[in-house]
Amino acid sequence: MKKNENYPKLVQAMHMLDDGHSVNYIQKHLRVDRKTLLLARQRYLSGGELALLLPKYQPQLSMESKLEIVREVDQKQLSLSEVALKHLIPRYSLERWMKAYHQFGESGLARKGTSNGMKKKRQRTEAEMDELEMLRKRNEYLEAENALLKKVKALVEEREARLRAIGQKPSKD
């Protein structure tokens, strides 16, 4: 397990909080941002100093876990920040879950994506399709023009070779 680089600073901050120092004082004294300090405090209270070594956030949660957390916000009328700190999840994730739950119900909390982990191909808009078709036609035109120029060059070189063979100088046109 990779040791958290801020571990000593966070342990010191937790001891300072235990001793009664304010969050603002610790923030300024140790130069730790408030969000990190509050998350660390929640982890410290739930698991002690060793919990500060764990990754900042939990790995991806199941639909059931998300549903439990969303219902906790709805039923207990808790703030998103409180619930996010309690469950050690980013607040913006919780906001996203809440929005999905209110729009689509429980199915909105299901993991998106395919089962084999492959991303779906992005659907193109009509304007992008028109532009793509236009670029393909332009590319086809330029390839044809390039082929024509190569043929002309080959014909000119062949003509010059014939003229040299009979002893005449090629024209400069």
Could you explain how this protein is built, in words?
With 173 residues, this protein is an all-alpha fold. The mean pLDDT is 81. α4 crosses α6. The chain has helices at 7-18, 23-30, 34-47, 63-76, 80-87, 91-104, 126-165. The chain is 64% helix and 0% strand. The protein folds into three domains: 1-56, Arc Repressor Mutant, subunit A (Orthogonal Bundle), CATH 1.10.10; 59-111; 125-168.
Structural features:
single chain; 173 residues; mainly alpha; Arc Repressor Mutant, subunit A; 3 domains; 0% strand; elongated
* Named CATH topology of the largest domain: Arc Repressor Mutant, subunit A
Number of domains: 3
Determine the strand fraction and express it as a percent band.
Answer: under 5%
Give the CATH class of the largest domain.
Answer: Mainly Alpha
Query: Describe the biggest sheet?
Result: none
Based on secondary structure, the structural category is mainly alpha
Count of DSSP H/I helices: 7
Alpha-carbon Rg, integer = 33 Å
Task: Report the count of strand segments.
Answer: 0
Low-confidence stretches: none
Helix percentage: 55-70%
Mean pLDDT across all residues, rounded? Answer: 81
Which CATH architecture of the largest domain is right?
A: Orthogonal Bundle
Write the element-wise H/E pattern from the N-terminal end onward.
HHHHHHH
Shape: elongated
The first-to-last residue Cα distance is 76 Å
